[in-house]
Amino acid sequence: MIKYNLNCSNGHEFEAWFRSADDFDQQKQRKLVSCPQCGTNDVNKALMAPAVSTSRKKQQVALAMSNEQKQFLEQLRAFTRQVRENAEYVGPRFAEEARKIHFGETEVRGIYGEATLDEARSLAEDGIDFMPLPILPEDRN
Q1: What InterPro entries would the database entry show (predicted)?
Q2: Which of 24, 32, 57, 96 could be bridged to 18 by S-S, CB 3.0 to 4.6 A?
C-alpha cells in the first residue's frame, strides 16, 4: 500500500491510500479519485518526502521509551520466552489442537502457534480459553 498526499485544483490537500502507483493512475483516469472537501476529480499527487527507515531511527524510538515502558517490554519478552520454552509449537494447527484439548480428545498441554482471526473468533465463541502472544519489536526483523 502507498499513501499519497494529494491536492485538488481548488487548493484542498488530503491523503489517500492505493495498492500501487499504477492503481492511483488508473483510478484517476477513471475519475474515481475525488477531493473529499469539494468533490472535484481534478486531483494530483503533491510533493512528498520519502519515508526512510534507518537503524539510527529505530534506536531513537527505543531510547524514547520511559523506564516503565522498557520494564514492561522486558516482562513481555520474558513471558513470551517462557511460553515458547514450556509449550509445544503447533504452527497453523493451533485452533484445531486447542479444540482437541478443550474437548478432551488429546492430553492437556500448553501449546502455541498461529490462528486466523476467524479461527480465534470461533474459539472464543466456543468458550475455549486462549490469548495472543505479543508481537515484539525483534519479531518484525
Answers
A1: DUF1178 (IPR009562)
A2: 24
The CA-based dihedral angle spanning residues 16, 20, 22, 23, taken in that order and rounded to the nearest 10 degrees: -50
DSSP for 46-63 reads: PP-------HHHHHHHHH
3-class state of residue 68 by DSSP: helix
Q: Which amino acid belongs to residue 47?
A: L
Q: How many CA atoms lie within 13 A of 72 on its CB side?
A: 7
Q: Which of 11, 44, 15 is nearest to 27 (CA)?
A: 44
Q: What is the pTM of this model?
A: 0.51
What are the cell numbers at 41?
476529480
Burial (CB count <10 Å: 0-12, 13-18, 19+), residue 44: exposed
Mean pLDDT of the chain: 85
pLDDT of residue 69: 84
Q: Higher pLDDT residue, 53 or 41?
A: 41
Closest CA to 4 of 20, 16, 22: 16
User: Which residues lie closer than 8 Å to 50 by C-beta, 6 or more apart?
Assistant: none
89 versus 134: the higher-pLDDT residue is: 89
